[in-house]
Design brief:
Layout lengths: L4 E6 L6 H13 L2 E7 L10 H11 L6 E6 L3 H7 L4 E6 L2 H17 L4 E6 L9 H9 L10 H11 L5
Parallel strand pairs: 1-2, 1-4, 2-3, 4-5
The chain binds 4'-phosphopantetheine (PNS).
4'-phosphopantetheine binds next to strand 1 and helix 4.
Length: about 160
């Protein structure tokens, strides 16, 4: 699928080791992978879109297949304007499935030329989510096994999470 451009959308507030692993694996399959950070003014986030872009960009600076940007509006419109016809999402557990299937069906209804591909999360990351990371960090726990080092540092600056 070297000629295919794929989009990996999400909030990434912040990037976790689970996300990073999925991005690395997806980039091996497709010609180009665009990490697309959703800018949703109605959702309150810890990191600004710009901060999230920078954290992911610097983590993947050595991977020429990965580009990182933020977007607002419909994901399928973003994908079309970037000539991407695949959306990548990760599945951790069956509990993710309802929401993910609904999103995939809505996106197919909006644009039938774009397919959603699911990658299963590595089991060692299956319990990690951005929400859990923020909760642990806010309560003073270590997130060193859950997020890349730079994200841990950024969390520490934002909310005082301890860096190991
Ligand atoms: O990491 P998240 O919060 O689960 O990501 C959800 C995201 C950003 C992929 C989803 O909310 C999205 O695609 N938003 C863009 C708006 C859109 O296209 N909505 C219709 C499809 S549900």
């Amino acid at each position: 699928m070297e000629n295919t451009i794929a989009v990996f959308p999400g909030s990434f507030d912040p990037l976790t080791n689970g996300h990073a692993d999925l991005i690395t694996r997806a980039a091996k399959i497709f010609g180009k992978l665009i990490v697309a950070i959703a800018e949703n003014p109605n959702k309150s986030t810890l990191f600004t879109p710009g901060e999230r872009v920078e954290l992911i960009r610097s983590h993947f600076s050595g991977n020429t297949k990965v580009s990182v940007t933020s977007f607002s509006g419909l994901l399928v419109e973003f994908a079309k304007s970037n000539r991407a016809n695949v959306i990548i999402r990760g599945l951790r557990a069956i509990s993710d499935f309802d929401y993910e299937a609904q999103m995939a069906l809505v996106n197919r209804n909006l644009c039938s030329d774009i397919e959603t591909f699911f990658l299963t999360t590595r089991e060692e990351y299956s319990y990690i989510s951005s929400t859990i990371v923020k909760q642990v960090a806010k309560l003073g726990g270590s997130v060193s096994t859950m997020v890349p080092r730079a994200v841990e540092e950024a969390l520490k600056k934002k909310i005082g999470a301890p860096a190991a």
